[in-house]
Write a structure and sequence with these properties.
It comes from Haloplasma contractile SSD-17B. The chain is α+β, with helices and mostly antiparallel strands. It contains 11 helices and 5 strands. A 5-stranded antiparallel sheet has the order 4-1-2-3-5.
């Protein structure tokens, strides 16, 4: 957090949220009563009333900033900050500062859509819950908190979207990468179900084993790591159909991740498919 010397108030958004400037840097400060009876031009220097909630606006240009404040409900800013603090405490780590604006915007837009009667659908909910269980659990609590605070029914679909934001805010994590992995898992499991004429139980050992392996493949492909596969020649000969499916899966992965899948990985995927094929 930036050391607080004094913030000039640019706009009072609510009793608990103010837009301020320190030097050339603009920020949002959140704290109980921080905006009460305050006016533009006044200076806030008491860090105790800020409750350690400081949101940088460095990522927004003037046009984006104007649009952001024209659309966002100040209550959503407060709620989002509470959620981020809860997530940090439960994960035992600080989240990337860039999560603030993105999550505020997302929650605000979701509420707007719900108020307009627009249904929120998340086709990757089960995959998100499986891949990011800690984040999903926190997001579930976040949705309950939003619903009770604003008195609006937030659908289960939003849990998955908020979970991806939280995962993306963790160190060495990316929301876009998490979404790519989640979509890939969904597409690949559906592909295998169709080709093998099977139906996965999302919480079965069979599903878990296959998904965990695919997630490992994605990470190794992105990091350009290769696993040795001493059974590769045998797999290619004895499992031609599974190898054919695995090669298609490899092409799908390459298209999404932009990097080729090594033959050794193709062999291991084929081996996993063969286990599914005999269930």
């Amino acid at each position: 957090m930036v050391a607080i010397k004094g913030y000039e108030i640019l706009k009072v958004l609510s009793n608990n949220v103010v837009l301020v400037r320190e030097g050339d840097a603009k920020s949002i400060l959140v704290g109980k009563g921080i905006g009460f009876a305050k006016k533009k031009g006044q200076v806030i220097s008491n860090k105790d009333v800020i409750e350690d909630k400081f949101i940088s606006l460095d990522a927004l240009n003037d046009r984006d900033e104007a649009q952001f404040f024209a659309q966002v409900d100040p209550r959503v800013i407060e709620i989002t900050e509470d959620i981020i603090i809860m997530a940090s405490e439960e994960l035992g780590e600080s989240l990337n500062p860039n999560i603030h604006i993105g999550l505020i915007d997302h929650i605000n837009y979701a509420i707007k859509r719900l108020n307009e009667g627009i249904e929120i659908v998340n086709p990757f909910l089960n995959e998100t819950k499986f891949l990011y269980p800690k984040e999903y659990d926190i997001a579930e609590k976040a949705v309950t908190y939003i619903s009770s605070t604003i008195d609006i029914n937030i659908p289960v679909a939003e849990i998955g979207f908020i979970a991806l934001h939280i995962h993306g805010g963790r160190s060495n994590s990316s929301k876009s990468k998490a979404m790519t992995f989640t979509k890939l898992i969904s597409n690949l499991t559906k592909f295998v179900e169709d080709k093998l004429k099977i139906s996965f139980d999302d919480y079965s050992f069979m599903y878990s084993r296959f998904v965990i392996h695919l997630q490992g493949v994605f990470d190794r492909v992105l990091n350009e790591q290769t696993l040795e596969n001493i059974f590769l020649d045998k797999i290619m000969i004895e499992l031609p159909y599974e190898v054919s499916l695995s090669k298609t899966i490899g092409m799908i992965i390459e298209k999404e991740l932009g990097k080729p899948v090594p033959d050794s990985e193709i062999g291991y995927i084929a081996l996993h498919i063969s286990k599914l094929n005999f269930k």
